[in-house]
Amino acid sequence: MSLEIIGMDEIERNIQRLIRRVEGAEERIVDAGAQVQYEHLKENLPVDKGDMQKKLIVGQPYLENGKTFINIGWPEGSNVEFRAHFPEWGTVHQKPQLKITKSVKESHDAKVKAMLAVMRKEYGLNV
């Protein structure tokens, strides 16, 4: 006596499709938020010679303690990373301007909306 289940091939294909959709989705979700943050930062950075805005980059996604992160900043050796700290944190002769901090706070809602939109698309949610 044997049991024949009809339609298992289709169910298996659907499960495989769902797994492929979920794999890598976290990176795409975090990247969507990083792109919104990048654009907002680029608009609000102080313009010295324009190097702060021109050399700002979005890094590659990486895992740390099971969570996906993406760094936004300046490449090492670009001679911009240390100059960005002076207007942000201030010096003996200059008050902190907190342009980066304000930009991060102001773009939070837009970043979350972009991440949610990608999440809905990736996971097939129509909510």
Walk me through this protein's architecture:
The chain has 127 residues and is mainly alpha-helical. It contains six helices and four strands; from the N terminus they run H-H-H-E-E-E-E-H-H-H. The strands form two sheets. The chain has a two-stranded antiparallel sheet with strand order 1-4. Strands 2-3 form a two-stranded antiparallel ribbon. A hairpin with a 2-residue loop joins strand 2 and strand 3 (67-69). Helix 2 (25-44) crosses helix 5 and helix 2 (25-44) packs antiparallel against helix 6 (108-123).
Present the secondary structure layout:
Layout lengths: L7 H15 L2 H20 L6 H4 L2 E2 L3 E3 L2 E3 L2 E2 L7 H9 L9 H8 L1 H16 L4
Antiparallel strand pairs: 1-4, 2-3
Keywords summarizing the entry:
two-stranded antiparallel ribbon, 6 helices, mainly alpha, 127 residues
The largest beta-sheet arranges its strands as 1-4
Helix content: 55-70%
Measured by DSSP, the beta-strand proportion falls in: 5-15%
Our Rg estimate from Cα atoms comes to 22 Å
Give the count of helical stretches: 6
Distance between the termini: 46 Å
Low-confidence stretches: none
Q: What is the helix/strand order? A: HHHEEEEHHH
Shape: elongated
Structural category is: mainly alpha
Sheet with the most strands, sense and barrel status: 2 strands, antiparallel
Mean pLDDT metric: 81
How many β-strand stretches?
4
How would you name the oligomeric state of the polypeptide chains in this document? single chain
